[in-house]
Specification:
There is one protein chain. The chain has 225 residues and is mainly alpha-helical. The chain contains 9 helices and no strands. Pathway: Purine metabolism; urate degradation; (S)-allantoin from urate: step 3/3. Keywords: Decarboxylase, Lyase, Membrane, Purine metabolism, Transmembrane, Transmembrane helix.
């Protein structure tokens, strides 16, 4: 069974900006479907990527509510970040944005990394409430929660990446199938018809010669008699 799509290190790195994560995903792949990909991603993220790898991935995210920077993320990641925060930005006011910025600073001062949350579909008030609640966690607890949120983001981005590449793979497969069928049709038109004519002619010649040979034998028999 051939894998549906084959993703590279850059693809995985755009989903989770940990070099270790991307390298391990390439070594574990290729995968046959999205579910298998996510299962491997969870295992690698929680069991093979160390603390430094987690912090590396965390650092690639812009503070929640701020526009992604091209210096921190790839073009693909930047586009995804904007989409993931679109609901929050759409529901934000000047007051809530200011409050969000203040809490971003307080959170980072306490924990040493940006506040991470799977923001897709969440409003600014929801995100603010979650940040205030999690601010009271112990650092070790919050570090684990941030890693879990990163995994949610990674899984979501993998689904997008997998969907795009699967569609491309499907298009390639369809084109390949059409090309093979056309090649078969061309072979039939180019070779089968001439072959049929050639076979028919030889068959007719064989019948003619057989008839002549039989006629000659009958003549000889009559002469002998």
């Amino acid at each position: 069974m051939e894998p549906l799509v084959v993703l590279g290190e850059k693809d995985y790195f755009s989903c989770c900006r940990s070099v270790k994560f991307a390298e391990e995903m390439v070594l574990a792949g290729p995968f046959y479907d999205y579910q298998q990909t996510v299962t491997a991603a969870r295992d690698i993220w929680f069991n093979k990527v160390d603390v430094n790898g987690w912090l590396e991935a965390f650092a690639a995210h812009p503070p929640i509510g701020e526009s992604p920077s091209m210096t921190h993320e790839s073009p693909t990641s930047t586009q995804w970040s904007k989409g993931e925060q679109s609901a929050a930005l759409a529901t934000a006011t000047e007051t809530t944005l200011q409050e969000l910025q203040e809490w971003n600073v307080r959170y980072r001062q306490k924990f040493g990394f940006v506040f991470l949350i799977f923001a897709s579909g969440r409003s600014t008030p929801e995100i603010l409430a979650a940040m205030k609640r999690r601010y009271h966690n112990r650092p070790i607890v919050e570090f684990e929660l941030a890693a879990q949120e990163q995994m949610k983001i990674t899984a979501f981005r993998l689904s997008k990446l997998f969907t795009v590449n699967s569609a491309t793979a499907s298009q390639i497969h369809t084109k390949y199938t059409a090309d093979v069928k056309k090649a078969g049709d061309d072979f039939a038109s180019d070779w089968l018809f001439p072959f049929f004519i050639f076979t028919f002619c030889w068959s007719m010649l064989f019948l003619v010669f057989s008839h002549v040979f039989q006629f000659s034998n009958n003549d000889l028999d009559s002469i002998e008699l």
